[in-house]
Amino acid sequence: MKNKGLRRRYDVFNWNWFDWALPDGVEVRFAKLKTAGLWTLYEDGSQLIEVQEGMPEFATCITLMHEMIHVKGNLRGWEDHTKHGPRFLKERKRLLHAGAFDDWI
What we know:
By secondary structure, the protein is α+β, with helices and mostly antiparallel strands.
């Protein structure tokens, strides 16, 4: 998968699992990271999701969804949106029960 494919996944997941509520302007790309994924919020409000390149497709998709939860938390103004607090965990559970991870787990 290339950056264009990762962007397409963001759009599909946004449509299917987030009711198209996440910002379209979030930059999404592969990168060489020391972790599976990284979400960054810049001072100007722009956002970046980076996913470790070279992972299997299932890990790439699960990581992208994880980072998208951070985007939702920022959008909704969750105080703990940069961490994995109760709201993050509740959203992850919602996605799990809705079937968002069924293709990969």
